[in-house]
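Retro notes
What went well: the complex prediction finally ran end to end.
Inputs used:
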Amino acid sequence: SQTIHQWPATLVQPVGSPLSLECTVEGTSNPNLYWYRQAAGRGLQLLFYSVGIGQISSEVPQNLSASRPQDRQFILSSKKLLLSDSGFYLCAWRGRGTGELFFGEGSRLTVL
Amino acid sequence: QKEVEQNSGPLSVPEGAIASLNCTYSDRGSQSFFWYRQYSGKSPELIMFIYSNGDKEDGRFTAQLNKASQYVSLLIRDSQPSDSATYLCAVFVGYSTLTFGKGTMLLVSP
C-alpha cells in the first residue's frame, strides 16, 4: 500500500532563517505531488504541484520554492522565512487516473 | 477563479442526529467532488468522493451531488462525538489540482 511521510513534524524558526521540508511517497511510482499550506483559521492553499521529476508548477508567487529531485521525493524550501510563512504544511500525492489526494502527517511551522 | 464555498460553522448537533454539511462551487467544469475530515492538529483524511449526480452512500455517510445547482452535500447519520471535526469540501477541475473550501466545523454533543 501507498504511504507518504513528511518531516520534520514541528519546527520553530526565526525570521530570516532558511527552511527545508521533505516529503517522500512509498508504494507508488510517478505520482503527482503537492504542497499545501493551511494558515490558522484559513483554508488549504495550494503552493506547488509536480507531475514528474524536475517539473514544478507554482500557484502562489512568494519566497518559497519547491524541488523534485527524485520520483517520490518532494522538497519545500525557503532562503529567508517571513512571519507570514507560519502555518501547517501538507504534502499530498495523487495517483494517475484518480482525483483524490492523500495527505502526509503535516509539518507545523512557527516563525518567530 | 475557482471557488468552493462552505459555511464555517460551527454546526452543532446532538449525538444520534443527522448532520448536514453543504458546499457550493463556482466552476461548471468541475468533474469530481471530495469530502475530507480534519481533526484538530491533524492532516485531512478522505471520507468520500462522488462523480455523478445523485446520492452515494458509504456506511453512515451519504454524499449528494447536484451539478445543475453546483451543490454538493455530506450527510452523517447517527452522529457520534467522534465525528466532531472540520469537514472540507474539495473540487477537482481538469487535470491539475483540488480546490478546497475553508471547511465547516462540526460539533456533536453527547
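What we learned: Chain B is about 0% helix and 55% strand.
What to try next: split runs per interface for comparison.
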